[in-house]
């Protein structure tokens, strides 16, 4: 069974930094893309950043220049370095693995982590 375990959320003052980590486990053969989404109260879940196995990245306009996504393919782990945090970055951050293929699967699947809270105080 695939698990995505997130860590690194918490409370930080505006202008501060946090680093999120997400490790995927469970007989994984390959993962096409890994990324981070966030959902603030009363809002829809939105893409924050994503990275392919080849290293191509995609960022939401609101975080460009402040957040950096990286990935360790050997460890099936994705990171999100968040700098210059703003109160509007407050949300539950979810790890996503898209196109994840396990050794005994025929089709890749999409998986989500349980979410980690990031709160930025003004």
Largest beta-sheet details: 7 strands, mixed
Report Rg.
14 Å
Which spans have pLDDT < 50 for at least 5 consecutive residues?
none
> How much strand?
over 45%
- What integer is the average pLDDT? 96
Individual helix count: 0
Give the helix level as a range of percent: under 10%
Task: Give the tally of β-strands.
Answer: 11
Structural class: mainly beta
Spatial gap, N to C terminus: 40 Å
Shape: elongated
Essential attributes:
11 strands, seven-stranded mixed beta sheet, mainly beta, 122 residues, elongated, four-stranded antiparallel beta sheet
List the helices and strands and how they pair.
Layout: E1 3-7, E2 10-13, E3 18-25, E4 28-39, E5 46-52, E6 57-59, E7 67-72, E8 77-82, E9 91-102, E10 109-112, E11 116-121
Parallel strand pairs: 2-11
Antiparallel strand pairs: 1-3, 3-8, 4-5, 4-9, 5-6, 7-8, 9-10, 9-11
Give an overview in words.
The structure is a single chain. The chain is an all-beta fold. Helix content is 0%, strand content 60%. It has no helices and eleven strands. Strands 2, 4, 5, 6, 9, 10 and 11 form a seven-stranded mixed β-sheet that branches. Strands 1-3-8-7 form a four-stranded antiparallel β-sheet, with no helix packed on it.
Short précis:
This protein has no helices and eleven strands. The protein has strands spanning 3-7, 10-13, 18-25, 28-39, 46-52, 57-59, 67-72, 77-82, 91-102, 109-112, 116-121. The model has no long low-confidence stretch (mean pLDDT 96).
């Amino acid at each position: 069974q695939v698990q995505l375990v997130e860590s690194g959320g918490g409370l930080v003052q505006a202008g501060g930094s946090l680093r999120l980590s997400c490790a995927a486990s469970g007989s994984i053969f390959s993962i096409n893309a890994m990324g981070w989404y966030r959902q603030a109260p009363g809002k829809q879940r939105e893409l924050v950043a994503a990275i392919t196995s080849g290293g191509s990245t995609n960022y939401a306009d609101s975080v460009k220049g402040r957040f950096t996504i990286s990935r360790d393919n050997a460890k099936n782990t994705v990171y999100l370095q968040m700098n210059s945090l703003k109160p509007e970055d407050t949300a539950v951050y979810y790890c996503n693995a898209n196109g994840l293929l396990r050794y005994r699967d025929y089709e890749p699947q999409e998986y989500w982590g349980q979410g980690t809270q990031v709160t930025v105080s003004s």
